[in-house]
Amino acid sequence: MTDIDDLYEQTILDHNRTPRNYGKLEGANRSSEGHNPLCGDHFHIYLKVENGAISDVRFEGAGCAISKASASIMSSLIKGKTLADAEALFTKFHKLVTAQLGEKETAEGLGKIAVFAGVCDYPVRVKCASLAWHTMMMALKEDGGKVCTE
Hints:
about 45% helix, 4-stranded mixed β-sheet, about 150 residues, Sufe protein. Chain: A, alpha+beta
């Protein structure tokens, strides 16, 4: 294992053990529920959207270390972002975990989501890593719908 792999693993374990923005968000005006029946991941994403931006975000639920860490990191990254910025971040994340990033994109500004770069090598884990992100996108659509990765 390389030093960078070790750092990524430690980041995922840290966010799994101590998730950021965990718990129900009182006053949320958008929410969605996501479920990955293959491994049992199940999350609720709560958003407070004001003036075209995500002023607060929280999540609750349970899942494997990758899905919980992904929800934690996603919630940290989208807080304070405009809806367009959150959607752009989702697109970048989705391309990363499905190995669709171009050479230029890979080198530019992945920030904290780079810890999920290795997920594309394990196709079954892509659904774990992307569940919270798809659920967030559903919540942005204001319909409170449900997401299922199957």
